[in-house]
Design brief:
- The protein is an alpha/beta fold.
- The protein has one domain: Rossmann fold.
- The chain has twelve helices and seven strands.
- A seven-stranded mixed sheet has the order 3-2-1-4-5-7-6.
- α7 (about 130-140) links the parallel β4 (about 115-125) and β5 (about 145-160).
- α3 packs across α4 (about 60-70).
- The two termini are about 30 Å apart.
- It binds S-adenosylmethionine.
- S-adenosylmethionine binds next to α1, α3 and α4.
Amino acid sequence: MDAEKIGKIRDAVRRNFEASPVQYDDFESRHGFFRNLNAILLETMDRENPRNILDVGCGTGASSIQLLQACPQARVCGLDNSPAMLEKARMKCCPNDRIDFIEGDASALGSCLRRRFDTIIYSASIFLIPDFRESLRQACSLLEPGGKIGITFMDGVYGETGNNLLVEADQQLGLGVSLKKPVSLSDLEAFIKSILGSIKVVEHNFDLPRDVVKDFFSIPAMSAGLFPAFDYQERLNRVSALFANMSSDNVIFRWVVIIGSKP
Ligand SMILES: C[S@@+](CC[C@H](N)C(=O)[O-])C[C@H]1O[C@@H](n2cnc3c(N)ncnc32)[C@H](O)[C@@H]1O
């Protein structure tokens, strides 16, 4: 992908998250989805007593605050390029010298951060970062030897037999779902392997009421991933139509956890 295209996608993602903090936190307080996802990530990373954690794409702080609570010895740094998401994150934390939130781009970690980390996570953010290779290269150079990088990647929405429900519903309704992601899972896995050697990859199939997943895709930034060409109201209409067309009450929301360790 050339630099101009990377810049355009990055700006669009940033604009979409600038419009998302209220709906994002509302979704999270109703369903606790990111909390569950982050708990799975932490368990899979199996870190003993981390001291210095970087949370890339910390959003409104769900993952950073969870890390702060789960790792009582650690300092946590949350980084995001959306001031509106960060403002919410800061509002949730009383002054605490174990956590700080920094505005910065995931692909320019080296210029925003002056310290090293033993743990770096990208929870629900890597698939939004078109120059993920540059971001991971820089993350790797900020990682101490023996440190770990942990990632959660959104894969898709499936039926019981593994059928792709977004593709099926779109084929039936012709809503124009965009299934292109800035980052593919195979490219991501191949790249992490190339910089860190062996990696651990674990698939998680969340069996959820389809309305929960509909609510996820109704967050402004998430709806823009499915229907980038439309305004928010029209995106909401299309997301509703898409999920109303699915025949089962429950769907499989598949995420992939990837863990790499620096030798
Ligand atoms: C789905 S949210 C995840 C938030 C958080 N990790 C959690 O568990 O709730 C993704 C976040 O990644 C951020 N993000 C996307 N692209 C980014 C980039 N290039 N640099 C920094 N942050 C980015 C977005 O602004 C958004 O807040």
